DNA sequence: CCCTTTTCACCTAGGTGGTAAGAT
DNA sequence: ATCTTACCACCTAGGTGAAAAGGG
């Protein structure tokens, strides 16, 4: 499924006439797997059936092994610096999956693990032997506030409500004004 | 609205590494306006209410004045020759209107007039004074079998049925298998 | 009378969380 | 007990011809 909210960046300082590729990948934040705090531990009884727990996570052991991470190219790549800079760039086509055998090119993550999205800008070097300069032709940006725990189902009521309130595709689950 | 069927081309012979713009425009086939044959002229009574007539057109006078024709750039332009050639290029974003004040960039046509779609390939010349070579840097293709009469409502039952049978968006009006 | 405009139900295409059943 | 999967109703977004209403 898509990431929500979508990762978006405003870009400055490119050469307007040069070509760039924009891409994202995801790296593990740590070497752990997490699990939800149980009601027993919290001393709170579940409401029966499907009960959300707390907003806290417990370390549940060592991370599952991960295959080399996939990369998502922004579908407008390559494009001129002027094009990238003239408006906010939105990675709304990026999709996540936990299916290790995925063949749709989606980003594969382990559920219940924490990830750091990374944003990469690659300058398309017009020189003949551009491979030689690969090291100096890209720049990586990390925004720590975009870290998240991957899940297959929401573990926190307030996250669910936030998404229902702010994602237009979930409008069917709203029961009051989205302005709240 | 969209053209249907969509204008599609298969392209050969480009320089795979060079940039090209692909575009379309529409030129009048003649200087006439047309009207439908009436039932009286045909000797056939209309079925009452909304009756389709024949498949023939009568000349109804001189063409209405037309503003300079708009041009539709294929939204993937500019792109490399290799990109254009590797699959059929489809102009399915092209839209037609009879609204002379249209500000959506759609192609403006006069209803009840005949048009010839034209397809243009423009080579993006990397030379500094490329404007000088504009004349030699494009090529126009005309397929006479794509001529049509612009209308605001269908004038022929068989055209309606053909479109209902072959346009997926009109599936709601089908009453039998689309294979027919 | 002939053509145009507006609105509508009905599609395609695809992104939501809910829910129940499945897996470990 | 905890997490995952598959399916669903319900959305967004937008392309159909039908039909009724409008215009000259």
UniProtKB/TrEMBL annotation, chains A, B:
Keyword match Transmembrane: no
GO biological process, one term: positive regulation of DNA-templated transcription
A Pfam family recorded for this sequence: T-box
MF annotations from Gene Ontology: DNA-binding transcription factor activity, RNA polymerase II-specific; RNA polymerase II cis-regulatory region sequence-specific DNA binding
Gene3D superfamilies, sorted: Transcription factor, T-box
Source taxon at top rank: Eukaryota
Subcellular compartments: Nucleus
Domain T-box: 1-175
Keyword annotations: Developmental protein, DNA-binding, Nucleus, Transcription, Transcription regulation
InterPro entries: p53-like_TF_DNA-bd_sf (IPR008967), T-box_DNA-bd (IPR046360), T-box_sf (IPR036960), TF_T-box (IPR001699), TF_T-box_CS (IPR018186)
Ranges annotated as DNA-binding: 1-175
A single cellular component GO annotation: chromatin
PANTHER family registered for this protein in UniProt: T-BOX PROTEIN-RELATED, T-BOX TRANSCRIPTION FACTOR TBX1
Descriptive protein name: TBX1 factor
Species the sequence originates in: Burhinus bistriatus
């Amino acid at each position: 499924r898509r990431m929500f909210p979508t990762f978006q960046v405003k870009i400055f300082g490119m050469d307007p006439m040069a070509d760039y590729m924009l891409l994202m990948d995801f790296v593990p934040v740590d070497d752990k797997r997490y699990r939800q705090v149980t009601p027993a531990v919290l001393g709170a009884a579940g409401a029966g059936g499907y009960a959300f727990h707390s907003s806290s996570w417990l370390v549940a052991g060592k991370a599952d092994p991960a295959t080399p991470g996939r990369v998502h190219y922004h579908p407008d790549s390559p494009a001129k610096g002027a094009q990238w800079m003239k408006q906010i760039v939105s990675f709304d086509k990026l999709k996540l999956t936990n299916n290790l055998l995925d063949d749709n090119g989606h980003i594969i993550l382990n559920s219940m693990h924490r990830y750091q999205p990374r944003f990469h800008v690659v300058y398309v070097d017009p020189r003949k032997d551009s491979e030689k300069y690969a090291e100096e032709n890209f720049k990586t940006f990390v925004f720590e506030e975009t870290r998240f725990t991957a899940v297959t189902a929401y573990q926190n009521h307030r996250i669910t409500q936030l998404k229902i309130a702010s994602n237009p595709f979930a409008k069917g689950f709203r029961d009051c004004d989205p302005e709240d």
